[in-house]
Amino acid sequence: MFERVSLEVGGRTLTLETGKMARQAHGAVIARYGDTVVLATACMDNKATEKDFLPLTVDYREYTYSAGRIPGGFFKREGRPSEREILTSRLIDRPLRPLFAEGWATETQIMAMVLSADADNDPDVIGVTASSAALYISKIPFLNPIACVRVGLLDGKLVVNPTTSEQKTSLLNIIIAGSEKAIVMVEAGSQEVSEETVVDALEFGHAEIRKIIAAIRELGTRVGEKKVSVTPPAFDEALYQDMMRKYADRLRDALDTAKHPKLESYGLVDAVKKEIFAAIPEEDKPKRAMAGAALERLREHIFREDMLGRRRRPDARAFDQIRQITCEIGVLPRVHGSALFTRGETQSLATSTLGTKEDMQRLDLLFERDMHKRFMLHYNFPPFSVGEVKFVRGPGRREIGHGALAERALAPLLPDIADFPYAVRVVSDILESNGSSSMASVCGGSLALMDAGVPLKSPCAGIAMGLVVEGEKYAILTDIAGAEDHYGDMDFKVAGTRTGITALQMDIKVSGVSINMMREALAQARKARLEILETMEKTISTARPEMSSYAPRLHMLTIPTDKIRDLIGPGGKKIRGIVEATGVKIDVMDDGKVHVFASSSTAAEAALKMIRDVTATAEMGKTYLGTVVRIAEFGAFVEIFPGTDGLLHISEIAEARIRAVRDELKEGDQVLVKVLAIEGNKIRLSRKAVLRDQRDKQAKSEPAV
Q: Which of these, 307, 312, 351, 480, has the minimum number of CB atoms within 10 Å of its CB?
């Protein structure tokens, strides 16, 4: 059955339709916005699992045919997901996952495919909305649809779904996902905007979201699919009450990280768990499962009771208190910049490396090809950071997401490429983790960049906030640790400078978070950010005046644009020869600017001389020491610099008339010549003019008789 709904969003029509494509999927919606078309499907397995979590898989793919292109490179079909596709998959997953019916543990898969892409409308937010609609019209027990929009700030005005070109000049790029009642996810990057501007953007975006949700509900009503019933997971209340009487006090003590460090606390909790399970036969798997669920609920009850009733955090900190911070820079001798940032039991070793244009990451994006990414931040989370043993593979979605957040926080603060034409890579290796390692990466990355001599516009710090809310009671937490993240209702990461916010990420697990709570959380986060910046600035507040001796030094010169081909040479032979002879790196820009990167000043000067020799042009009236390369009856050809020679006519060789050129010159002679005229590619030279100038100069210097 074909159904379609349409509405206007941001001055363009958003259309959601179903019943035409992918009809065997349990839910399929085609979303069109401008000429951007996304197909989202939702499917569930035909059998339930015994898992105690939601096995949800989300895959978002951008097919190059959607933009009328064939994939670049050796392989001509799409391969593994790009970083952008992974980040968008996370963008879809994060707001949807908490909204499934309680107890739903059947394998569920969402796929969002970009079928058509125009150059104006970004498909990422459309993919989130389409995925929500596909779930809502399906039999899968997803009862409360969400929608997603992007909000920009152009000329001081908030704009919904700015175009891809407008995003490049927008001071704010904030993606908001929400239900009718509340915002459930935020992802943002900005140019040091204020907290109040962010709150205004959230309210503005949520108003647009409500309109889209009304259209999704209308589509669901027309389809009329009956939802699968879900039986809430069984729970043994008597077992829970018995466990509370026997173990609540011991468990509360074990969870007290003011008394016990993280690993010791884990050990004490495990001891309680072993004692509980020792009384249950191993073959009685249902009861053991009930005991595990009861123990988990008891842990959560203790956490929330302490937080909202006793107003006490697990480690006894005040709600707005940050754990102890230490900062150290220059910790590694051979890297260009390094920093060790430690906050409580979270530690980031950040390094920064400077490179040239050839070190920039080449991007093959849906809308633009052959783009180069100048700044890269890579995040690693080895298993030893949490005392675990695991196989080490390539970066997972979590690592890519955390790295992208930290990168987004620091990128707006880098100097313009015209002033600092280096490629910059930061790597954050998490050596210890108990609470927001992504925000530790922001702090460590800022320190490492300044240690490398990168002139950041301002130092940058990040902080993770949390929220626990029940009814009218709530607690906003600064610098959340692991348990507060796990059992809390909101994970809210804010990064920025003293001036304003540069990156923000928020995931909300409940629907009762008001705009006023967010405003309060942002104000508390700003206070914490300023405290962290004050600590960081005691270690380093501005970039080092000198870069590491191991970093490439930049030397610049400008050549005529018509000489670029001479410098590069056929097949790059000439420029490769200079690089091989001197060991430098050379970047040639289209406007004639040449950047020479070298660790040695001697190598740089040698390369610069070779470049000047290859690209030099004759100047009218200038004198050159040239070499006679060929003699003819009418004159001599003199090379004034490599690859460029001019004609020294027989009449311009000497002040007196000569009978033959060879009477004065022979091949290989070095001779001073002056440029008389430049006619296209022809250069006329004079030795006579040089001799005359020398005679006149000598005459002036002799005393009068």
A: 312
Structure token digits, residue 182: 């509340």
Burial of 437 (0-12, 13-18, 19+ CB in 10 A): buried
What residues does 490 pair with on adjacent strands?
467, 508
* Rounded Cα–Cα distance for residues 702 and 393 (Å): 83
User: Helix %, strand %, coil % for the chain, to 5?
Assistant: 35, 30, 35
What is the DSSP code (8-state) at residue 315? T
Return the closest-CA partner of residue 494 out of 455, 457, 456, 466: 466
Rounded to whole angstroms, how far apart are CA atoms 128 and 549?
Answer: 48
Whether 319 contacts 477, CB under 8 Å? yes
Rg, the chain, Cα only: 34
Secondary structure element (H or E) that encloses residue 596, with its range: strand 593-598
- Tokens for 203? 């309210």
**In this predicted model, what pLDDT tens digit does every residue of 436-492 receive, in sequence order?**
899 999 999 999 999 999 999 999 999 999 999 988 889 999 999 988 888 888 889
Q: What is the DSSP letter of 622?
A: -
**Token pair recorded at residue 142:** 């997803």
174 contact partners, CB below 8 Å, separation of at least 6: 150, 151, 152, 186, 187, 188, 189, 190, 198, 201, 202, 205, 504
Regions of the chain short of the pLDDT cut 50: none
Tokens of 564: 């670029």
* pTM, two decimal places: 0.86
**Both tokens of residue 167?**
């995003």
Neighbours of 73 (CB within 10 A): 8
- In angstroms, rounded to a whole number, what is the distance separating the alpha carbons of residues 123 and 117? 7
Q: Are 652 and 687 in contact (CB under 8 A)?
A: yes
**Contact (CB, 8 A) for 293 and 52:** yes
Write out the E strands in 95-234: 108-116, 147-154, 157-160, 172-178, 183-193
- The pLDDT of residue 172 is 96
Question: Would you state the structure tokens that stand for residue 700, as one six-digit string?
Answer: 């002036």
Structure tokens at 312: 């006490």
Could you give the angle at which helices 237-254 and 262-278 cross, rounded to 10 degrees?
Answer: 150
Q: HSE of 437 in the Cβ direction (CA atoms, 13 Å)? A: 28
Amino acid (1-letter code) at residue 89: S
Q: Which pLDDT score, from 0 to 100, does residue 377 have?
A: 97
- Token readout for 81 is 């997901």
**Crossing angle (nearest 10°) for helices 397-410 and 83-96:** 100
Taking the C-alpha atoms of residue 10 and residue 125, their distance in angstroms, rounded to an integer, is 13
Rounded Cα distance, 583 and 577, in Å: 10
Q: Please report how many Cα atoms fall inside a 13 Å half-sphere around the Cα of residue 481, on the Cβ side.
A: 26
List the structure tokens of 444: 């460590």
Q: Which amino acid is at 451?
A: D
**Cα 92 to Cα 112: distance, rounded to the nearest angstrom:** 9
The amino acid that residue 34 corresponds to is G
Could you tell me which of 116, 140, 119, 143 has the C-alpha nearest to residue 26? 140
Which of 12, 64, 9, 18 has its CA nearest to residue 40? Answer: 18
- Give the Cα separation of 165 and 295 in Å (integer): 52
Beta strands 56-62; 108-116: pairing state: parallel
As a whole number of angstroms, the distance between CA 576 and CA 572 comes to 6
Tokens 């499917």 — which residue?
Answer: 43
C-alpha pair distances (Å), 266 with each of 29, 169, 253, 262, 489: 45, 48, 11, 6, 22
pLDDT at 685: 92
Rounded to the nearest 5 degrees, what angle is found at the Cα of 115, between the Cα atoms of 114 and 118? 85
